[in-house]
Amino acid sequence: MNDHPNDPFDELMRRALSEEADRIDPDDGLHEIRARVRGQRKPVSRRPWAITAGAAVVGTAAAIGAFAVLNDTAKPADEPSIAGGPNTPTSASAEPSSTLPAPRVTPRPAPNTVATAPPSTSPSDTSGKTRGIEEPRLSKPKAVRIYWLGKVVGNKNGPDYRLYNTWTQVKGRPATEALRLMTMPKIANDPDYVSPWEGASVASVSYTKDLIMVDFEKLPSATLEPDMADMAAQQLVYTVQAALQQTAPVQITERGRVSSELFGVIDTSTPLSRAQALNVQAFVWIESPGNNQTVKEPLTVTGTAAATEAQVDWKATNLKTKAVVKNYTNTKEGQKFSPYAFTPKLGPGEWLIEVYLTSPADGSITDTDSKTIYLK
Amino acid sequence: VFDECVAHESSWDADEALTAVYTAHYTSLVRLGALLLRDNGSAEEIVQDAFVAMHGRWNRLRDPHKALAYLRTAVVNRCRSRQRHLVVVDKHLPKSLPDEPSAEHAVLRTAETDRVIEAMRTLPEKQRTVMVLRYYGDLSEAEIADTMGISRGSVKSHAARATKSLRQVLEQSA
User: Fold this and answer.
1) Rounded to 5 degrees, what are φ and ψ at B120?
2) Does B125 touch chain A (CB under 8 A)?
3) Of A174, A180, A260, A284, which is least packed with CB atoms within 10 Å of its CB?
4) Contact with chain A for residue B106, Cβ under 8 A
5) A20 → closest Cβ in B19, B51, B117
């Protein structure tokens, strides 16, 4: 339809419209679309494993700090309101002091005060159950595991995203640092990994033997579809529990207060429990080397997988020559999360290393992880 | 692994297709809508509507290329009816301009682009749509005809008239 292919008018039109189009940078719309698709298809799915450890009917508007929630967890079975807890519409009229014993209304100090307070406040305090201690500073750097969300490739019977993780060395307070890094997906240095916590800012992490308390200066503002929101909540639970080496439930607060809804859907008025690993962790991932890492030969790839027949397939593709090397390895044990390792002979160059699990039923790829590395 | 995904695209279920087509085309469809409407918020809304509709009929489309054609048609149709609605509303309301891109995204246009975009605003809706699909969408005459549901002859004549008036306006403002 173009009579004058080199017409300056055509050029001008193309240039101008493309320049105008480039100025438009839409926000992410996928979550919105998915949420609407879901809404048309079926009601919002319930979250079987976002179980709360002990629930009281609390108004989110009431200034109940983490300490109040802590006392509830001490005797969850006695709480008559458990059944109605998470689904009961929050009511600001709930008067904390009328439903909770007196110590619970003790207001929590502002997070900043906690952060700067000397740790000596807690050891002298005998009532260790009612006061969390701020996690101590490390004397030397330590590697912590940070969890990320990665898209599940072929497995349709489960969540769209699962938890992957990377290691990073931190100084200072390991859990606070790990969570802070978790809000910065760039740290993962892997385009396959995302973090819905981006933009949030962590104030402090404190704990007792029954509860971990994570206080945010600012919670993430993103609204997610329920399944992804649950996975993001588990991302935090797994990261903070790994850094503290304990598995107590996690109470999230914002500036010392119980926030209303996390990611628009998660009720954080009660602590979040750790979900079963098989429900949330990726079924296969590469632990080492890291993405974009330069490695000297011989290369050893290590990772963890939960493979039915203990078999992990791998494929290495030279990104320049397109040469492909394929083989498989076995995890130490089948059925459960178990380590694997293999040492491919590849030669120098830039390689894409992929590990994947195949379905015993039809041979299709169900789960995968990949890293690009430079071998020399 | 990725290659295999592409090879198996015809076996995608609706959710997989949604993600893949979204990743590949969402931004360009929103831009198309925004060029037609000059309203980014409405463009996003319309494109999202189109994706929801595409997801619902994936069993009939079964092909990313057909899905894209479907989305394009849906977006263009919805933008056109929105524009016609806006014209009607405009006649009854005090003059209000559609949203400009928000300040944070507002990279300054070059003077040249500014002139073209302003000149495009003077065109009737059909002529403007043809020009956007031709020069931004890079569609052939036949594709434009399909997308807009008009004959190829009409596409040709709209394009010719639009080109003539644009040339005139641009020469005057040059």
Assistant:
1) -60, -30
2) no
3) A260
4) yes
5) B117
| 8 Å CB contact of B109 and A32 | no
CA distance A25 to chain B (A): 7
Give me the total of CB pairs closer than 8 Å, taking one residue from chain A and one from chain B. Answer: 112
Query: Amino acid identity of A314?
Result: W
Does the N-terminal peptide bond of residue A289 adopt cis geometry, omega within 30 degrees of 0?
yes
Chain-chain contact of B18 with A13 (C-beta, under 8 angstroms) = no
Does the distance separating the beta carbons of B107 and A34 come in below 8 Å? no
Q: Is B112 in Cβ contact with A12 (below 8 Å)?
A: yes
> A21 near B35, Cβ under 8 Å?
yes
Question: The pTM is what?
Answer: 0.47
Q: Comparing C-alpha atoms, which of A119, A94, A309 is closest to residue A207?
A: A119
Instruction: Find chain A residues with C-beta within 8 A of B110's C-beta.
Output: 19
Q: Which residue of chain A has the CA closest to B130?
A: A1
- What string of pLDDT tens digits covers the 376 residues of chain A? 445 556 889 999 999 999 999 888 888 888 888 888 877 654 433 333 333 333 333 333 333 333 323 333 333 333 333 333 333 333 333 333 333 333 333 334 333 333 333 333 333 333 333 467 888 888 878 888 999 999 887 776 778 899 999 888 888 899 999 999 999 888 788 888 999 999 899 999 998 888 999 999 999 988 888 889 999 999 999 999 999 988 889 999 998 888 778 898 888 888 899 988 888 999 999 988 988 888 888 888 999 999 878 899 999 999 999 899 999 999 888 778 888 999 998 989 999 999 999 887 777 888 899 999 999 8
Nearest CA in chain B to A354: B1
Taking the Cβ of residue B134 and every Cβ of chain A, the question of whether any pair is shorter than 8 Å is answered with yes
pLDDT tens for each residue of B53-83: 999 888 888 888 889 999 999 999 989 888 7
Chain-centre distance of CA B49, in angstroms? 14
My answer on whether omega of the bond before A298 falls inside 30° of 0, hence cis, is: yes
CA B66 – CA B63 distance, rounded (Å): 5
